[in-house]
Design goal:
The structure holds two protein chains of two kinds.
Chain A (H helix, E strand, L loop, with lengths): L1 E10 L2 E11 L4 E5 L6 H8 L7 E6 L2 E2 L9 H4 L2 E4 L13 H11 L5 H9 L4 H4 L8 H13 L5 E5 L7 H18 L2 E6 L2 H7 L4 E5 L15
Parallel strand pairs in A: 3-8, 3-9, 6-7, 7-8
Antiparallel strand pairs in A: 1-2, 1-4, 4-5
Chain B lengths: L19 E13 L2 E14 L3 E5 L6 H8 L7 E10 L6 E2 L5 H8 L4 E4 L3 H4 L6 H12 L5 H7 L16 H12 L6 E5 L7 H16 L3 E6 L2 H7 L2 E6 L2 E7 H6 L4 H8 L59
Parallel strand pairs in B: 3-8, 3-9, 6-7, 7-8
Antiparallel strand pairs in B: 1-2, 1-4, 4-5, 9-10
Classes of the chains: A alpha/beta, B alpha/beta.
Chain lengths: 226, 327
């Protein structure tokens, strides 16, 4: 279970998150809906241990995170992966697509063979893998970002407005790949979006959609069918 | 009113009262050192005052290149052929493809055609207020309406104009872009992916504003990959695949039952429909397959598809085996 309890985050004097909590059980997809600017992305960053909240704590499979960013132990940091909304802002423009996917494997001294498998699963052909981000479309770059997120076989995957920039066919393809990974690996998925039609469909099988702001411990409200 | 939504192969002359843009055989190639990118191939469509044509397709299919070709904003390695006639009552028709840069700069851009760019916040100068930028556009284009009035029509309060771009929300930046696009009172609006990155309520507002522009008598060419946004506002839909327009239809008919298998695949990928992706990937625009470009991904393809399908005014769908329209 990936849990966050009583998370509070402030930017300057502005309180962006105030006592927010959420739980993502393994093997399920939890949807989180909310309008732009409500703090969804901030919560995603806290859950991925990329941002230290002013208050609150994150628990990953029963282990409370003792710190954030590089103060978090490697095995906790790599247990949660994040796919960002804008792939172009989430990659190093000097890397090729292959290097982008391989980077987490290299950083953790794991064999890079998995990168090629993932690239193929996500529909990236070898000619695309030698290109740099400015030479591919948003959709192709986001495919590489999903491959990168899956490289270390995370136990939890957070998709923060993953498909907002993409066309519908790429959206359907990426969601199908992530659902296949979830089923095969028993991973938990948190799907964050303002698109309630998408969330209702994505979480429709074996999941649920939470309305903003989520609170840990409260009875989750099922999504309106769409 | 003449009928729109049918592909015009060219030849017909304008007799309509309304001004219109009539594109025929528009082709754009980019020359790279080792390849040629076939970005747009023989595009034909028309859009007239009071109507909105949505040009939809996957990213990278050539939609935005088309918009930039119409405005003469392509880089130097691009070759544009074909024609794009601006036909206005009381004025000789003007071919945007053949027009020299001088004419485009002094008569067309901002004055006849207004552009609403993708990610408007990124197109505003960060060091000047929205008012300064809107007022500059009005001054340079000799616009009829003062900045405050344009802002009000775009749904902004006068005090919003005193903000710098970083102080504007996504929706407000969108409205500033709309106001600037209308500074020179153009009759044709090109909206290039105006909804990218906006959430659903903002998409709804943006589409309502485009609809209002149509109802005020402007022609709107909406370029988007967001089918739901297109459904909200469009009178007609043109679907683009690998640089070609493969289907043009009235919006209501299109969303009830598209005829081109690619268009059907796009609609089936919507989360509110089957949510299944189209198998395979779009072809590289440097290496288009012979015959129908959708052939490798199409379940209905057979030997006939080795011949490139042509659109005709009677059957505006470029497919040898189109789907039947649902009643």
């Amino acid at each position: 279970m990936l849990e966050a309890h009583d998370i509070t985050v402030r930017y300057g004097r502005r309180r962006v998150l105030d006592g927010v909590g959420i739980a993502v059980p393994p093997g399920t997809t939890v949807g989180l809906a909310g309008p732009s600017g409500c703090g969804k992305s901030t919560l995603a960053r806290v859950l991925a241990l990329l941002q230290r909240p002013a208050a609150g704590h994150v628990v990953i499979d029963g282990t409370p995170a003792p710190g954030w960013r590089h103060r978090a132990p490697r095995e906790l940091r790599t247990a949660v992966a994040l796919v960002f909304q804008q792939p172009r802002l989430a990659v190093d423009p000097r890397f090729t697509l292959a290097e982008i996917i391989e980077e987490p494997l290299r950083a953790n001294r794991r064999p890079v063979d998995r990168a090629a498998e993932l690239a193929e699963e996500l529909g990236l052909t070898p000619d695309l893998l030698t290109r740099r981000p400015h030479e591919v479309s948003d959709g192709q770059l986001q495919r590489a970002c999903v491959a990168r997120a899956l490289a270390l076989r995370p136990r939890y995957l957070i998709c923060d407005e993953m498909t907002t920039m993409l066309d519908v066919s790429t959206q359907a393809h990426l969601v199908a790949r992530i659902e296949a990974y979830r089923e095969a690996a028993g991973a938990g998925v948190l799907a964050i979006s303002h698109d309630t039609d998408l969330l209702a469909r994505w979480c429709g099988g074996k999941g649920r959609v939470l309305a903003w702001p989520p609170r840990s411990g409260r009875v989750p409200r099922p999504a309106a069918s769409g | 009113m003449t009928t729109t939504g049918t592909a015009t192969a060219g030849g017909a002359t304008a007799t309509a009262q309304a001004a219109r843009l009539r594109v025929a055989g528009l082709t754009v190639h980019f020359h790279l050192p080792d390849a040629t990118v076939h970005a747009v191939t023989e595009a034909a469509f028309q859009v007239e005052q009071g109507r909105c044509l949505a040009l939809v397709g996957e990213s990278g299919c050539g939609k935005s290149v088309m918009a930039h070709a119409l405005l003469g904003l392509l880089p130097g390695n691009a070759t544009v052929t074909g024609s794009a006639w601006l036909e206005q009552p009381g004025a000789p028709p003007l071919d945007l493809v053949a027009a020299p840069e001088r004419v485009l700069a002094r008569q067309v851009r901002g004055r006849l055609i207004g552009l609403i760019p993708q990610s408007p916040a990124a197109h505003l100068t960060p060091v000047r207020t929205a008012r300064a930028q809107l007022a500059e556009a009005v001054r340079e284009l000799g616009g009829r309406y003062p900045a405050d009035e344009l802002a009000e029509r775009a749904g902004l309060r006068p005090e919003d104009l005193d903000r710098y771009p970083h102080q504007l929300s996504g929706g407000m930046a969108q409205r500033v872009a709309n106001a600037i696009a209308q500074a020179g009172d153009p009759w044709l609006i090109l909206a290039d992916e105006p909804t990218t990155g906006l959430d659903r309520p903002l998409v709804d507002t943006t589409m309502a504003e485009l609809r209002r522009l149509c109802d005020d008598g402007r022609a709107v060419l909406l370029i988007t990959h967001d089918l739901r946004a297109a459904e909200q506002v469009a009178d007609d839909v043109a679907v683009m695949y690998a640089g070609r327009i493969v289907e043009i239809a009235p919006a209501a008919e299109f969303f009830r039952g598209p005829r081109h298998p690619y268009a059907a695949g796009l609609l089936d990928a919507l989360p509110t429909r089957a949510f299944t992706p189209i198998p395979g990937r779009p072809p590289e625009l440097t290496r288009l397959p012979g015959g129908c470009a959708f052939r490798p991904r199409c379940a209905r393809a057979d030997d006939a598809c080795a011949e490139p399908p042509r659109m005709t005014p009677d059957a505006p769908v470029a497919c040898h085996h189109p789907l039947e329209r649902h009643a």
